[in-house]
Amino acid sequence: MWVTAALAAIKRVDRVLGTGHEEFLPQALRGFDGRLAGSFGLPLYAADAAPGVPLDTSRGCGNSHFCCFVPELWPRRGDEW
Question: Which domain holds residue 47?
């Protein structure tokens, strides 16, 4: 769930420094979609990044924090999530 806060921080620093890491955002979204999404299509609470194995289902406590940053990172997904 802290991943979105870190991605938003990178995006914000890019604006200040004039650097560009935005091409990473579509790739990062893959970690929350498909088989790495819970039964309602929401991001999982936990997954093992290396093999991409889900460890725990979607939870409100994680999604409430996660979704605070989604509109900034992936505007179209913000409406869905």
Answer: 3-12+22-80
**10-33 burial: b if 16+ Cβ within 10 Å, else e:** bbeeeeeeeeeeeeeeeeebeebe
d(CA 77, CA 81): 6
Task: Give the pLDDT confidence of 7-43 residue by residue, as tens digits.
Answer: 999 999 999 999 988 888 888 888 888 877 887 888 8
In a domain, 17, yes or no: no
Q: What is the DSSP string of 20-79?
A: --TTHHHHHHGGGSGGGB-TTSPBPSEEETTTTEEEE---HHHHHHHHHHHHHH-HHHHH
Q: Does 61 fall in a domain? A: yes
Which pLDDT score, from 0 to 100, does residue 62 have?
74
37 occurs within a structural domain: yes
